[in-house]
Amino acid sequence: MATKASRSAARVMMAPAVVLLLGWMLVPLIMTLWFSFRTYLPLRGGDQGWTGFDNYVRFVTSSSFWPAISTTLILLIGVLAITIILGVLLAILLDQPMWGQGVVRILVIAPFFVMPTVSALVWKNIFMDPTNGLLAHLWRFFGAESVSWLSDVPMLSLIMIVSWQWLPFATLILLTAIQSLDGEQMEAAEMDGASVLSRFFYIALPHLSRAITIVILIQTIFLLAIFAEIFVTTGGAFGTRTLSYLIFQRVLESQNVGLGSAGGVYAIILANIVAIFLMRIVGKNLD
Amino acid sequence: MGQITLQNVTKSFGDVEVIPPLDLDIQDGEFTVFVGPSGCGKSTLLRLIAGLEDITSGHISIDGNDATDIPPAKRGLAMVFQSYALYPHMSVRKNIAFPMRMAKMDQAEQDRRIEQAAAALNLTDYLDRRPGQLSGGQRQRVAIGRAIVREPAAFLFDEPLSNLDAALRVGMRLEISELHKRLATTMIYVTHDQVEAMTMADKIVVLRAGHIEQVGSPLELYRNPRNTFVAGFIGSPKMNLIEGEEAGRNGAHTLGIRPEHIDVSATDGHWQGKVGVAEHLGSDTFFHIHETGLAETITVRAPGEVNFRHGDTIYMTPRSEQLHRFGADGLRMA
Fold first, then answer.
1. Is B331 inside any structural domain?
2. Stretch A18-30: mean pLDDT, rounded?
3. How far is residue A283's CA from residue A88's CA, in Å, rounded to a whole number?
4. Whose CA, among A48, A232, B89, B105, lies 20 to 30 Å from A32?
């Protein structure tokens, strides 16, 4: 990339990709913004013109807005906590030399390859079914009353399902990070009199902090948009309506495209706030 | 105090015996260097003493107490690693404080020792930096500082200078020697560089394939190598080892003569050969001499600048009192 000619050639060659990606992002964004300022009820008269900020006000003042925000945050924090704590522990476990390491690692990563819809269905029907589910059998085996997971503890169930899907991702990233930990550092700490726990908290965990930040960043972006798992399991009932699910309901169930689009713009703003915070943390951690 | 004794120590990795039964005594305050070619087991031996590897059989005692089954932290030894093994997320101060913090030492005492170590190692201005912001030599000093503050019974150095450039290495060599003189603490130092061994050691332990070939002071090893391996390993450039007829004439299987113990002349001498490459160092000139009928190459060290050109005929005379005679088993003949 030294000469003028090669630089302009590079620009020309990159242009199609840049234009495509930009269009891919800008067209939906502009359409969302456009619809959010209009009264658009597809089955009740169609596009009925400008309404200014009415949709935005209605979306926020609706009684479902704040519960949806708190549901989103509970889901996000619950899944992040589980995947990171278990992910660190699993990564340390998988880093130990053992027989059949390759196979075990592939098995651990497997859930990540299952489509969200499929894994939610599997959990709903095979594990969490109150009469025939595996968990119900297990509960009855110990003489306990079987739990109606999705209606009695819907948020916990949802967090379990989503954590199961994302744990492999966290484990994988953390495992590669742990493998890059210098063995001599651990030995030096051992010579310095650090116990196993001190070595974990003073050496291993700080070493993992950057990887953990990256896991949080990536997972947050995807978890804010969780949809299939809710749609397949509870359908937004029992207080499992997240922000993205609320938007879906406004657009498709209430047939109010304008209101839903306004919600979408809020979601974009929320995601960007989170992203700015996280980028700052990442930026601090990167030397 | 720091007297370390190894009795019948062995180490095997699976079926491979890395250290065959080995005995060694290291006196309090001694600077002992383990030297040998790579893969000779010198680092393993150090790690056995440190406790980072379990010994397969035998006993290690430190200051008369059996330390064989004592975990590394409790042996009172401090180690400086080849990669320095500094904690990258901690400042220099916290790195140095780490062993004391683990020992739950009084904060005032910690600060005192850190100040002292930093002053001794010229680190005072860098205490709040991270290891990543330091040069190689400074990192090395931080690693030494982290070892000093523990006031250990002995220091263990595992090839600490091999990641430094040549000029820095000479400087750090002096600093470590100086440190040893000042602290008078036992130090065990592993290196593959015989120059480091010769310049720093009170006692050199030459190892090959886990065996101790010879133990002695640098000059003892230089003057009286016990066998051809030690003869070839200690000294730079290497001792010339001559086999065959010429050795037989001197009543030996192998005849050893150091390059600095051969006199050269353009007109007459004991041996004759053709000058190959000449290395001019200014203070000395090393000639690599071929077609001598003795060995493939004979290396000769001539003091100062001597004028021989590539291909010239050269005459050499060994100083007979400096000849080393070795038997067919490689051992020195009395």
1. no
2. 92
3. 22
4. A232
